[in-house]
Amino acid sequence: MEAYPGPYVQHDSPLVFLSGLGERPDENRSGTSIPRQESGTRIVTASAECEGDRATQLLDKLLGHDGSQRAWNSAAQSGPKGGLRYRMKPIGRTFTLPPRKAAPSPQSPSADGLQSQHRSTELHSPLSPLSPGSPIYPDGVFTPLWVAKHQEHVPALLIAFFSISTDDTSTSRNEQIQIDINAIRTALGRSGFKTKFAAVILSDTSILHAPELEDRLSAIRRATTLDLKTGLFFMPPMSSQAEIATFVDSLLTPLQPLVLDYYRDLTRHNRRKKARGGATAESGVHTLSTPGWNVRYEVKQGVFAEFRQEMDVAERHYSQAIEDLFSSDGILEATPSWSPRWSEARLLCDILAFRTLRCQLFSGLTTGAAVSWVNYRARVKDLVDRRGVGSQTYGFDAWESRWAEIMAQLLEHAALPVFQSSAKQAPAESTELQQRQIFAPLDKGISAADRTPPFHQLHHRAYWLRLAFQSARARLGRALEIPEEDRTPPSRSPASSVAQRSKKYDTYLVPEPDEEYPFAVDKGYNHITTLRRLAMEAAREFSIRGQARSAQHIRLDLAHQVACTGGYSEALDILTPVWEDATWRDEEWDDVFSSLLYLLHDCATHVNNAELRLATTWELLAVGSHPPAMGDREFSDYVGHSQHASEKVAVKFENRQRLSPVTVSFAFVDKDTRVGELVECQLTVRSHASDDSAPITLSRVEVMLSSSTTIVISHKTSASPILETETLLDLSEAASGDVGYLDVEADLTLHPSQSRICSLFLNFREAGVVRLQQACLVVENDTFCLEHTYTDEDLMRTASVRVLHDSVLQRRLLPHSDTTAVTVLPKPPKMLVSLHQLRKHYYANECIRLELELVNEESESVDAIAALHVSGDTDDAVTVGWDSEQASQGELALGNVAAAVSVTAGLTVEAPAEPCTFIIDINISYTLASDPSTSLTKTLTTELEITVPFEAKYELAPLLQPGPWPSYFDAGDYRNAAPEGVALKWRLGTPLHSSAADSIVIRNMELVIDSVAEDATCNLSDHAFQKEQVLSATQSAMTNFEFVTRMRSLDNRSAANVELSLVVTWSREGDSAKVTASLPVPRLTLPSSEPRVLCTLGDGPAETDTLVLDYHLENPSMHFLTFAVTMESSEAFAFAGPKYRALSLAPLSRLRLQYHLLLHDQQDETDVQAEEGEGCWIWPVLSVVDSYYQKNLRVHAGSARIKVDEKRGLGVLVSDL
Predict the structure, then answer these.
(1) Cα torsion 1058, 1037, 1023, 1073: sign
(2) Buried b (16+ CB within 10 A) or exposed e, 474-496
(3) Helix/strand/coil (H/E/C) assignment for every residue in 243-262
(4) Which of 106, 160, 580, 1035 has the CA that lies 20 to 30 A from 1173?
(5) Could you tell me the pTM of the whole model?
(6) pLDDT digit string (tens) for 612-653?
């Protein structure tokens, strides 16, 4: 856009003058100046400018609504709340508006002394083709001065700022403001422009604090007749930036319709003039034609529409103006091509096309903009071919480059969201988002079925910059073809030669031929600077969007042009980054990459860069080519003789960082091997140089393995040259060397397409996975050293090896995929390890004793060490240890074990108290007497499952305590500290159920007190385990324990908490080793104040057949209790005693109620018979009900021969009486 006048290409925003807030010279654009006119309107304001921080902040906020530096799109050009963006221009108190009409032409007096009357006294704009002083008089179409007038000099709105103060109480300040406002309005009316006016009064006090301000404002309004809504504004003091911003919004919002009306008035005026016709009847014969006047009116209406931000309307007017210019009677067709007016019309047409594109991009019509660009280029090419000197000139190439660059610059200024947002997308985004980075989608209303050409989808800036670069390169090519006679300046050329140049060259916006390509190198147009700017900017845009190939390609093209002009050093700087990061290398685009290498090699040769020359020669051989100067010389000879460096040159490459003409492949023949055994591997070196290249001689090949093994194959010329394509070299003798370093020799001179296959045998001393780490190709002589290292296994892996069969090399596929690695297995141990005395089942708390036996089956003696390791899911630690005192931290030195000799060692395992499963690993590490550096390992793993041998259930029942109860009437010995509470006796039944798979012997069972509450005591009755009992699987054993609890104080009525444990001593059947297991009894909460009923067998007379039952009612509480006692009748017996009785028990008392039972001869069939010889059971039912709580008390068995059944209640065993 720099080639066109600034006003033509600048964005049109409504111009607003800000008077009274100070000037900002740096904010003013340097527009085209309008010629000075003495008749211009000068506006002078006597009031002082507003000063202070508030005025500065207000100006800053107003300038924030300036859209001059914003992007050219609808979103960026929209102000707050959908308003317009303006061209805010701060001015002083005095300024001049340009004249609206041109000054009348001076007239000479006639013979009679009177001035001659002109045929027309109508005055026109100073910039009109009808005004003699206009730069386009008499037949020019348009001038940028007209656009500059509306962009910089004639505002749509003038806002004047005045300040008033409450300190100034006189009316002079008010009167001066009124005079200035009226003067400005009068001057605006006199100027002929319909500029809108508004005044803003700044006060240092609000009306709320100074009510007299309201009268002063009213006086100003009456004197100036300004509307309070759109003409006169009051700004009180504001303390924050937000308040000032809100005031600015409230100021510009009502003024926006006035601004739009201003440009609409201009549009209507222009439309009326168009309707009246173009030139006047009195115009001369050389005046502007009617199509030219139509173009002027269309352009003006388009510009005014742009000021109103009505881009669709502006586009329509610009398009019509272009059609008028290209029409059959238009200026471009009717004006001679050699005329300056034709070039002016062509420039105007370019500007109209430029503004059409800008309007379309502003509205988001990306496809329409691309189509318009293509169509306009085709129309201009056709125009130049028909009416100009043709399109095969450097001038048209310059225009095409400029036209493409204009689109790129428009995209930069438009900042379309489709490109702005996509440029920030991460590379891992979806393909659809990545495509949106490159081109915009089709416009709405255009479907994919319309078969739109791809380029009609607007692409990002780099594509247009690349088009501009290509046209600029073509321009340079045509400039270089300019003959010498045309390169001579006109002052030194014959007139005939100069006249012929206008017919041969299109100099539209380009220099003349003598300046386009002068004889002097430092003069004329700098083509390389333009090419560099376009190429580097396009490359940067391509790189931002991840298009690395396009970025590298355009840099390569730039380097070609720079090198052609002799700038080898600069071309080298451009090519080196491309060469370092070239994607063509990995993608095997050899044609493009070889072109890069040729150019880079040529530049390196000219600047004497030895390292770069060596590297490019190496890569050129890799792509099947070679430098032209190399000929049939060998690589080392060519590089060595061409080096001019004083020191030896050394270069190092790695993997695909550089291409190599020689590749390396490596493979282990076997997938795995063992320590100390030989394993075969093959190393293949192959040349990929072109057939017409000389052979390449490698100095050596170095291979490193992960086992710290290094293989070096050095070059040694063979007695006779090797001509076969593939040669198998047997280097098996290398295995006899040092295990960490192998050095062999072979002929490494490779002709094109030749291969050397080296067969090696290796052995390893340590187990593990051995991998190929790197392979290095070295070419070295006295002048240089080149090392190409491969560390990527994928580049060296091969799926096959070569084998010699009947003197013919054959390819054999390997059965494993990872051929660059071999698994070295440990040497198999010959040690028999067994564990004796193992049982199928083990139980908690058991001491497990095992015996380990080792049998040495090696052919020689060994030195062995046994180590224990326990793992499992148990929370408790498992104690495992050797029985020997020589063991230390789980290890036991077994010492020297001769061949075919066995040794034993005992170990003990303490089983945890909880069931679990754990694993015991016994590792036997030993070394042979002949090879003490190699350790062999044999592991024995045993899993032990620990289970619980038995389960216990607990049955708690009360018993009768025969001893006396304490009494309140017996003080006793106060010095005795014995507990004084009620003694309550209990029975704990413990049925023990065997869950073991083996038979176990219960040796002893006892009850142990773990803890008792501090306010209670617990005493166990003496219990002697009767006899040992054998429990088979699923069998049970029952044992009863008795204990007495007593509270320490009669006043303590809380329950007694007792924790007990059942200690069981058992052993396996047939084994004397005893195991003690402690089974916790659930916590017992024993009430100490609840009443209870116990039944015991009393002592009856010996001579009678009666049965005596004693029912004991106990009241350990501190309350009087009343019970209703009822004995139910039964057919099994008759009883003597109260049938029904009410009993009252005093606190801390008990009562015995006795019944005599006489059994009938015939027992009811429902009675249960006891075991043989024991008698039968009867079921007396005694109901004891608490009269107060109506609670039925349960009758408990208080002695032997009495039990409680869940269904039938209390049962009494009756033996033969």
Answers:
(1) negative
(2) bbbebbeebeeebbbeeeebeee
(3) HHHHHHHHHHHHHHHHHHHH
(4) 1035
(5) 0.70
(6) 999 999 998 888 777 766 766 788 877 777 666 567 889 999
CATH number at 950-1086: 2.60.40
| Structure tokens, 390 | 């043709």
Q: Which of 103, 73, 97, 94 is nearest to 85 (CA)?
A: 73
Name which of 625, 620, 691 is nearest 658 in CA terms: 620
Query: Strands (DSSP E) along 691-739, which ranges?
Result: 696-697, 700-705, 710-715, 726-730
369, containing H or E segment: helix 366-387
C-alpha 675 chain-centroid distance: 47
- % residues pLDDT > 90 (the chain): 48
Compute the distance between CA of residue 536 and CA of residue 539 in angstroms, rounded to an integer: 5
Provide the 8-state DSSP code for 440.
P
The superfamily CATH assigns to domain 831-940 is Immunoglobulins (2.60.40.10)
In angstroms, the CA 693 to CA 662 distance is 13
CA–CA separation, 1064 and 1077 (whole Å): 5
* Cα end-to-end span (Å), the chain: 136
CA angle 88, 90, 92 (to 5 degrees): 155
- Give the phi and the psi of residue 451 in degrees, each rounded to 5: 55, 50
Angstrom CA distances, 439 to 40, 188, 550, stand at 50, 49, 15
Triad 264, 269, 273: Cα angle to 5°: 145
Contact 177, 202 (CB under 8 A): no
Instruction: Give the Cα separation of 1168 and 954 in Å (integer).
Output: 25
Gap between the Cα atoms of 193 and 185, Å rounded: 11
What's the pLDDT at 281?
A: 46
- Cα–Cα distance measured from residue 7 to residue 29, given in angstroms and rounded to the nearest whole number: 10
Query: Looking at the DSSP assignment, which residues form a beta bridge with residue 843?
Result: 947
Please name which of 926, 936, 924, 929 lies closest in space to residue 859, comparing C-alpha atoms. 929
Confirm whether 831-940 and 1092-1214 share one CATH topology: yes
**Cβ-proximal residues to 526 (8 Å cutoff; 6+ apart), any chain:** none
- Contacts with 163 (C-beta within 8 Å, 6 or more apart), sequence order: 48, 50, 55, 201, 202, 203, 204
Q: In what order do the strands lie in the sheet with 1202-1205?
A: 1176-1178, 1209-1214, 1202-1205
Structure tokens at 936: 């062999």
Predicted pLDDT at 895: 87
Q: What gap in Å lies between CA 238 and CA 1103, rounded to an integer?
A: 125
* CA dist., res. 811 & res. 817, Å (int): 16
Mean pLDDT in residue range 680-706? 91
Strand partners, 1214: 1176
Q: Where are the domains of the chain?
A: 6-103+123-276, 649-825, 831-940, 950-1086, 1092-1214
1132 close to 1159: Cβ distance less than 8 angstroms: yes
User: Is it true that the peptide bond before 138 is cis, omega within 30 degrees of 0?
Assistant: yes
Are 984 and 1029 spatial neighbours (Cβ–Cβ below 8 Å)? Answer: no
CB atoms under 10 Å from CB of 329, counted, come to 11
* DSSP reduced 3-state for 276: helix
Which secondary structure element, helix H or strand E, spans residue 796, and what is its range? Answer: helix 793-796
> Tokens for 1146?
């005093």
The enclosing H or E element of 343 equals helix 340-362
Residues 6+ apart with CB under 8 A from 916: 872, 873, 874, 875, 876, 878, 945, 946
* Sign of the alpha-carbon torsion through 752, 753, 759, 762: positive
CATH code 1.10.287 for 649-825: no
pLDDT tens-place string over residues 89-136: 999 999 999 998 888 776 655 545 454 444 456 788 889 898 888 899
- Contact of 1147 with 1089, CB cutoff 8 Å: no
User: Among 347, 181, 359, 155, which Cα is nearest to 266's?
Assistant: 155
What pLDDT digit, counting tens, does each position of 752-782 carry?
899 999 999 988 888 899 999 999 999 998 8
